[in-house]
Amino acid sequence: MKKIYCLLLSIISYHSLIAQQGAIFASAKKDSSGVFIGDMHATEQVESVGAARQYAILNLKKDLEGLDRSTKNNLLADVVNDRNLNSEIFTTYLSRLDKKYKGDIRSIETDNIRDIFQIDQKSEIKKRHSSVVSAQCFSSKNDGKFIKMKDLDGDDIVGFPLETFKGNSRYGLVENYHQGFARIKKDQVFGFLNYCGDETIPCQYEKAELFNDGKALVKKFDWYFIDAYGNESDILENVVDVKALRMGISIAKFKNGKFALIDNNYDVSKKPLSDYFDEIVSFNSELYRVKTGKSFGLIKIDGSTKIDAIYDNINSTTEQGKWMIIEQNKKVGLMDTDGNIKIKPSFESLININIDPTISAGSNLGIARDEAGIRLVDFKDLRTSKTYSSIGDFNRFGLAQIKDGKYVGFINLELKVVIEPIYSSLGNFNQFGLVSACKTNINGATKCGYIKFDGTEIIPIAFDEVANFSRFGLVVAKENVKNCSLPAGNCRVDVIYDKNGNLVIGKTNEAAPIGIKYATTDTLFNGSYIAIKTFNPTKNGDDMSVEYNLVERYSLRRITTQSYLSIKRYDSNQLFPVMKDGKWGLIDTTGKVIAKPTYKDIMVTTEGLYGVRYDNNKYGFIDKKGKVQVAFDYDEVRPFNNGLSIVSKGQGKLGVINRFNAKIAPCYFTEVNILPATKQLELVDSSGNKFVLNANGDCVTNCTKLDEIRKIANQ
Q1: What's the pTM value of the predicted model, to 2 decimals?
Q2: What single string gives the DSSP state of each residue in 512-576?
Q3: Beta-carbon count within 10 A of 347 CB
């Protein structure tokens, strides 16, 4: 007996199967097939029955050593490390274990001491014995398929591959092994398989619970216990439903509608472990909430009372049941699981706050409400915040908006006010960690800006309105002014700030600003420049057509010095064609004007030159510095190709020039075509004569006639 109590010093951890609160009699969750419960995947195939015996012995030896590690046990000291362990030796080993566990069970059951530690100790012995009984099947096997796997408790076992039943329509449930046996439902009734896959307890019960320390609860009109050998107990009188818990203890529902805890000896004792209650549900890993009439209390798994049922309600906090929210006389407070009142029931409500674990894994807060308002409660150390008129949800930065009277601020998960409630309104934090903030000044005017999550002012709180930030980190701030130069008088003036608080586009004139309006966009030029919609006012106050400014994406620096009606993407010269007042010009990527907007049209650059149309409606070419390289003499020009451009001086007057405006072919021809195969130029005159020039402009076909045409043009 003394040896048995040494176990109290080395209780190994158990794996509980506690019913979930509010669903104590619900069935276990099945997998997507609707049949299999538990992870049944093999960790390793077992190649022979002998190997299966060897693995089984090693696992059972490990169980024994873990259970009895406080003393030196020589029961299996001579275990043979033989992967082809024969039936005779295996039977000898199993017989030793069976005798050992039966003796331990008899010893501990004759003792009159009954506490939670002894229940736990007895539980470990009985469930290990249950595994020994199941493993005895390997003695009689000569062949078969087996796998190494983990059972429902996470223990290493060797057993029959249960997924073999997959697809068999006779089975409605195949559950992973637990304490040596797998629960199955076949042909609409329940039974159990041993480690070898034998239906050692035939399918015959309309209901069945998992094995729970050597016994399982089963129903065949009435409820019974069955042991690991399939022996049925006497009928459990007055029991109408049950739910197995752990350590040989279950919740039973009786014919009178009451609930109580029973142990595996209830068929003999006819006495429950606990009092009778109207309800018993799981509260935490150690306690069960009970209800009597309209009052709630707590009991231990051995049935003893932990907290008398005198409370209107009891709920656990998210601190894993360390604190309990109690309700009494329509007021709520906080109590620990030993029954010590930590916060007197004085609040109208006290509820948990569900905080996303990605924000904070360790926070455990609640909200308490009374006549004065609401406050935060830290369930870890029972600190409380100041009382506020409202508290919002915690955001991804771990901040919640608080309202104190008329004003709002932010509090963090540590109950520290990081933004004082001095603002008339606060928005939601954006992707840059900024929030719009508005204050009411002494004159009653409301001004807005942006602040960081620590309260630092980023955009001055000096504007009548602030927009939302664009995804590139720009925001429009709006101010109503009375001294606008355009339109004259009162107007709205916009400016643009970046996410760092830098002024990107300010007022045109501080003393008498122009009422320009802006709108940020997500439009990018060449992947590096942000387009800003710009609305320039007219004298009568009407908005013009939308124009655009450019801001560099990464530095958030303004590029354009003025807005443009149209901006084309920059070319190989890194120049933007821009339009202002109906005329085209060029600017570079720093905003420098390369060619003033003086041209009626501009073509995409070809070989470094831009075709442009001047005020005389004639075309010429400018280079990337804005310098005119080909005078404005042509009705039409085409892009340069290999240094040559086809030009026109009217109907039927086509010619060819080079980059220096040299007339390679005078404007005399009705057609000029580029031959696709050779890239040569084919010229056709009004008489149908054809001439061919090579890429250098030299004649290669009908050259005598072409020379005459050239001489006349050169005179």
Answers
A1: 0.64
A2: S-B--EEEEEEEEETTTEEEEEEE-B-TTS-B-S-EEEEEETTT--B--SS-BSEEPPP-TT-EE
A3: 23
3-state secondary structure of 138: helix
Calculate the CA 354 to chain-centre distance.
Answer: 16
DSSP 270: -
- Structure confidence at residue 73 (pLDDT): 60
**Residue type at 250 in one-letter notation:** S
Phi, psi (deg, nearest 5) at residue 700: -125, -10
Give me the mean pLDDT over the 155-167 stretch.
91
Burial 515-541 (b: 16+ CB within 10 A, else e): bbbbebeeeebeeebbbbbbbbbeeee
| pLDDT tens digits for range 673-686 | 999 888 899 999 99
DSSP H or E stretch at residue 289: strand 287-292
Give the pLDDT confidence score for residue 424 in this predicted structure.
Answer: 96
**Both structure tokens of 205:** 């019960």
Q: Which backbone phi and psi does 559 adopt, to 5 degrees?
A: -100, -50
> The tokens 């933004």 sit on which residue?
419
Distance between CA 511 and CA 562 in Å, rounded?
19
Two tokens, residue 572 = 């190989």
**For residue 468, pLDDT beyond 90:** yes
Q: What is the DSSP string of 52-79?
A: HHHHHHHHHHHHHHHHTTTS---TTTT-
Cα angle 699-703-704, degrees, rounded to a multiple of 5: 150
CA distance 37 to 103: 34
Which residues lie closer than 8 Å to 271 by C-beta, 6 or more apart? none
Neighbour-count burial for 458-474, b at 16+ CB within 10 Å, e otherwise: bbebebbbbbebbebbb
Between vectors from CA 485 to CA 483 and to CA 491, what angle results, nearest 5°?
55
Assess whether pLDDT exceeds 70 at residue 603: yes
* Angle at alpha carbon of residue 103, lines to 133 and 16, rounded to 5°: 55
Write down the pLDDT at residue 118: 66
**pLDDT on residue 39:** 78
Residue 15 to residue 125: CA distance in whole angstroms = 14
**What tokens does 664 get?**
């390679």
CA neighbours closer than 13 Å in the CB half-sphere of residue 145: 6
542 contacts: CB under 8 Å, gap ≥ 6: none
pLDDT (tens digit per residue) in 207-226: 999 999 999 999 999 999 99
Q: What tokens does 710 get?
A: 């050239």
Residue with tokens 């062949």: 143
DSSP string for 155-224:
-EEEE--GGGGTT-TTEEEEEEEETTEEEEEETTEEEEE-TTS--SEEEEESEEPPP-SSEEEEEESEEE
Give residues with Cβ within 8 angstroms of 194, minimum separation 6: 133, 134, 135, 137, 180, 181, 200
Quick one: tokens of 281?
A: 């549900």
Cβ-contact 334, 347 below 8 angstroms: no
The answer, yes or no, to whether residue 308 has pLDDT greater than 60, is yes
